[in-house]
Model the fold of this input.
Amino acid sequence: MKPAPASKYTTPAIALHWLLALALLTSFAVGLYMADLPFSPQRLKLYNWHKWAGVTILAFSVARLLWRLTHRPPAGLPMPAWQARASHLTHGGLYLLFFAVPLVGWAYSSAAGFPVVWFGVLPLPDFVPVDKALAAAIKPWHGALAWALAALAALHVAAALKHHFVDRDGLLARMSPKRT
Done:
């Protein structure tokens, strides 16, 4: 017998979840691709797109966190205590990295002397002063934090798929845009 589906997240929570997931996946893929390109107009364009995506991810993250702080999520599903703890730690790490990765990227861009102009229209203030040594120190942190975010996101997806295909507990339906 199939368990009753758990109550769903709100429509704004679902929309922010999937928009953020899509933005993160796209930005990560562009970041991997552009990093090894030779200096060219294409590389400069991709760097700007990557920075625009980072600022957008930061905006989505602020909206998502504000929504989460002001709207209770649906009740959790029954699961072993270790799984509940792992879920809470993973979600906490994801939220931390949603902010850390773009902020460190912005700091790197500022320190390197490359301003961030969101969508080529809105110039954002430098996050830190121009300092090439600081830029060199920050750059590896942006990459390392992005990889950590990718790893936690993969763990999050794997857990959701385990709940859907192995436990069949309705967890994945809670974040589905489809009405159940």
About this structure: The two ends are 17 Å apart (CA to CA). Confidence is low (pLDDT under 50) at residues 1-5.
